[in-house]
Amino acid sequence: MDEEGIVWIENHVPVVNKKDIRENLLAVIEFAQQTKRPVINIINSITMIEKEARDYGASEEVKKAVSAMALVANGRLSVLVANLFIRLSVPPYPTKIFTTNEDALIWLKQITG
C-alpha cells in the first residue's frame, strides 16, 4: 500500500485461478486494515483467468475490500483478459483498464477523491 492508501498488486502467473484472487484479496485486507481501498492490479503476464476466478473477483466479498480497481495491462492478451473480466463478470466496483501505471493512478485518484 502506498502513502495515498492505494494497494498495488502485481501478478506474475500466466493463468489466474480462484486461489490467486483469494490470496490477492487477503493481501488487500491485510494492508488496508479492514478499510475499503482502491487497487492497482498489474496483470502484464496474465494470459488467462479461469471463470471461477473471474466470478470470485467480481463478488460481493471482494467488493467489501475494494473501492475501485485499475487493471494495468500492456500486452494484447492481457488487455483481452482484462476486457473479458470486466464485460463477462461485471465487477460491482468501478473497474477500468490502463496501459500505464501513471494513467491508472490518475484515474483512481479522480474517482476515489
How does this structure look, described?
The protein is of the alpha/beta class. The chain has a single domain (7-112), classed as Transcription Regulator spoIIAA (2-Layer Sandwich). The chain has five helices and six strands, in the order ββαββααβαβα. The chain has helices at 18-32, 51-57, 60-63, 76-89, 101-112; strands at residues 7-10, 15-16, 37-42, 48-49, 66-72, 95-98. The strands form two sheets. A four-stranded parallel sheet has the order 1-3-5-6, sandwiched between helices. Strands 2-4 form a two-stranded parallel ribbon. The radius of gyration is 13 Å and the shape is globular.
Topology diagram in text:
Elements (H helix, E strand, L loop, with lengths): L6 E4 L4 E2 L1 H15 L4 E6 L5 E2 L1 H7 L2 H4 L2 E7 L3 H14 L5 E4 L2 H12 L1
Parallel strand pairs: 1-3, 2-4, 3-5, 5-6
Helix pairs in contact: 1-2
Task: Please tell me the CATH architecture by its name.
Answer: 2-Layer Sandwich
Instruction: Just give the CATH class.
Output: Alpha Beta
**Uncertain regions: pLDDT < 50 for 5+ in a row?**
none
Question: Number of folding domains?
Answer: 1
Number of helices: 5
Strand composition percent: 15-25%
CATH topology: Transcription Regulator spoIIAA
Topology, number of strands: 6
Q: What is the terminal-to-terminal distance?
A: 17 Å
Helicity level: 40-55%
CATH superfamily: STAS domain
The secondary-structure element order is EEHEEHHEHEH
How large is the radius of gyration? 13 Å
Main sheet: strands, sense, barrel = 4 strands, parallel
- Roughly what is the average pLDDT, rounded to an integer? 92
Q: Globular, elongated, flat, extended or rod-shaped: what is the shape?
A: globular
Counting helices, strands and paired strands, the structural category is alpha/beta
Spatial sequence of strands, sheet with the most strands: 1-3-5-6
